[in-house]
Amino acid sequence: MTKKILVLPGDGIGPEIVAEASKLLNALRQDHGLNVELEEAPVGGAGYDAAGKPLPDETLHLAKEADAILLGAVGGPRYDTLDWELRPERGLLGLRSELALFANLRPAILYPQLASASALKPEIVGGLDIMILRELTGGAYFGKPRGIHTRDDGTREGFNTIRYDEYEIERIARSGFEIAMKRGKRLCSVDKANVLEVSQLWREVVEQVARDFPRVELSHMYVDNAAMQLVRAPKQFDVIVTENMFGDILSDAAAMLTGSIGMLPSASLDAAGKGMYEPIHGSAPDIAGQGVANPLATILSVSMMLRYTLNEPTLADLVDAAVSKVLDQGLRTPDIWTEGCQKVGTAQMGDAVVKALKA
């Protein structure tokens, strides 16, 4: 049965990096029998330009019909003056909400070829392999009430609400335990239970779910300590599960342990395994159109798509091996380049991965 993949290039470097991932998908289709069809649509700033809003109705319809979604990036400075509801990021948040993509998987893996690019010593990060599981549809980013209020005396206050229902905590915790069972059977739940009532509920529910997974070692850590531990001794972690805002911050911190945020993919899944796959690095408008963006995070997002939604783990392994082979060959985009390596552009890197895949 043919699977439908909706391709959303988005803004900034999005079209450039997605073009390389699409090139890879076409190679998998032609040479390895991957039965997929690709369709493209605008989102983010591109959605606003095309239809006057960041998540056009047709794009949302196609997203609901698709089996998986490949997203580039959204956002850019020329949209910063738009009203909040019209900004590109609202398209991304709208997709997550409308498709109930509650579980965000962000691996932080250090390729041995890039150990020198990490800001930390090789003995600290060598062999790093962490999975950060971030709850994606709750917390301060979605909680209400929210807004900016002008008081009677003319001064203003801004407010957001961190809110979690018990079932939202239960489903992300269960996902965390299930992932831990497939890895090192260690799960660290990150919260701020010493200050926040919502975190106290979070911890209570996580401990309840833990009873169903007696083989998984559960630990708890406050988010400030977790941030410190990520840069002190990151290899102590296997799977981290946490709420939306904490996960947003910690996963970006973990990204730099690997040498470049341009290397890291992500998956956002619903309860049935349908997913939206995207690099975590953003639209990088400062380098858009220059042909120097690193497409490897987007290509590795395709690998995650093959693994988690399309049920093609063998093809996912082939993609991972192709990326590793290209790094072995010394090819580097500017963000991961070091002395003695060959500096290449976006399209050259994509071509090299496809060539390695064919080989």
TrEMBL record:
It is found in: Cytoplasm. Homodimer. GO terms for cellular component: cytosol. NCBIfam families: leuB (TIGR00169). Its cofactor is Mg(2+); Mn(2+). This is 3-isopropylmalate dehydrogenase. Mg(2+) binds at D224, D248, D252. GO terms for biological process: L-leucine biosynthetic process. InterPro entries: IsoCit/isopropylmalate_DH_CS, IsoPropMal-DH-like_dom, Isopropylmalate_DH. Its main location: cytoplasm. It comes from Thioalkalivibrio sulfidiphilus (strain HL-EbGR7). It catalyses: (2R,3S)-3-isopropylmalate + NAD(+) = 4-methyl-2-oxopentanoate + CO2 + NADH. The keyword Transmembrane helix does not apply.
